[in-house]
Structure formats: C-alpha cells, structure tokens
Amino acid sequence: MAAQTISPNEFKSVVDGGNFKLVDVRTPAEFQSTHVRGAVNVPLDQVSPDSVPQPVEGKPLYIICQKGGRGSQACDQLTAAGLENVVNVEGGTTACEQAGLPLVHGKKTMSLERQVRIAAGSLVLLGIGLYFVHPAFLALSAFVGAGLVFAGVTDTCGMGMLLARMPWNQACGDGSCSTKAAKAA
C-alpha cells in the first residue's frame, strides 16, 4: 500500500496552524544543514514506532526527507509496524523550501544522494583503471552497475544506507537530532 501524501502547500497550512509532529528521516548531518522548523530527526535506519514522537491526538504524524523517497519508505515501515495516520510530505524538504515553509539553516553538508553518485562513479572508474592491472577488476564496475540498477528498480540503495552510517553523516552538535530527541518530543 502506498503511503499517504500531502503537498508542500497543504503542509504549509498545517505548519501555520501549529500543533503538529514532523519527523525528518534524513541523516543527522543533512538535518543539521537544513530542515523544516519544528522537525525532529530520526534517521531512516532508526525509524520505528518507539523512536518517533507520538502524533498529536487525532492528527497525522508527518514524515519528511530530502525529496520524498526515504519519507515514503519510513511511512511504509511505520504503517507496517501498526502506526496509523502517517503522512509523507511530498517532494520533501526541497519542495517545502520552494513552497516557502520556515526552515532552519545550519552547517552546509553534502547530500546523501550526491555522496552516492560520487562513490559509485569513483568505484566504476577504479574498476576500469585497475582493468589494466588485471582484467578481473572489471567486475568491480559491473557490480556497481548492477547495484545501481537494483537501486533504481527497488527504490532502495544499499550504498546510500551504508554511507548514511558513516561518521561524517552523524554530525549533530546542537542536540536537536537523534532518537533521544524524538522520544523527548
């Protein structure tokens, strides 16, 4: 079942009305860089009914990411775990910024999507370059290509999940993100 969605313009009226719960499922570093005011960070790999704040009674729990894909995955996980009335903010933080929602800006970081493109491209080039050392290294490029096809078909990126766990994607100096902050909310 596809996750329920709300457009950024509809969500803007929710934000203007106040009294809502919004969970940002991007990495802590992405969250620290820019997020919608009022959001709590719970990275996608930590999303569970126990890790997210309880929604305001009678209102949905809103989920957001960068462009909508990870938010949809989080909604599916929470719905499958029994949480009802979970709504993905369509287009993510990027669309909310374009719609004029209030954002909090912090230290600029590189998006996870960009990190995946850099890592995949580097591994393909490395495999091709090492081909001159031994032809078997061409398998590295083939493996990365197969992984990209799998990611496109399933909308699940193993390299992205791995990179999300790297130390540079865990930076959160102001204490506003993490599962602990979500439980306190």
Question: How is this structure best described in words?
Answer:
The chain has about 180 residues and is α/β, with parallel strands linked by helices. It has two domains: about 5-110 and about 180-185, Rhodanese-like domain (Oxidized Rhodanese, domain 1), CATH 3.40.250.10; about 110-165, no CATH class. It has helices at about 10-15, 30-35, 70-80, 90-100, 110-130, 140-155, 160-165, 180-185, and strands spanning about 5, 20-25, 35, 40, 60-65, 85-90, 105. The strands form two sheets. A five-stranded parallel sheet has the order 1-6-5-2-4, with helices on both faces. A two-stranded antiparallel ribbon has the order 3-7. Helix 3 (about 70-80) links the parallel strand 5 (about 60-65) and strand 6 (about 85-90). Helix 5 packs antiparallel against helix 6 (about 140-155) and helix 5 (about 110-130) crosses helix 7 (about 160-165). The chain is elongated. Mean pLDDT is about 85; it is low at about 175-185.
Q: Can you tell me the number of structural domains?
A: 2
Separation of the first and last Cα atoms: 28 Å
Number of helices: 8
Secondary structure category: alpha/beta
Output the strand order for the largest sheet: 1-6-5-2-4
How much is the radius of gyration in Å? 18 Å
Gross morphology is: elongated
> What's the CATH architecture of the largest domain?
3-Layer(aba) Sandwich
- CATH homology superfamily name of the largest domain: Rhodanese-like domain
**What would the CATH topology of the largest domain be?**
Oxidized Rhodanese, domain 1
* The CATH class of the largest domain: Alpha Beta
Order of helices and strands: EHEHEEEHEHEHHHH
Return the average pLDDT rounded to an integer. Answer: 86
Helix content: 40-55%
Main sheet properties: 5 strands, parallel
How many E strands?
7
Strand content: 5-15%
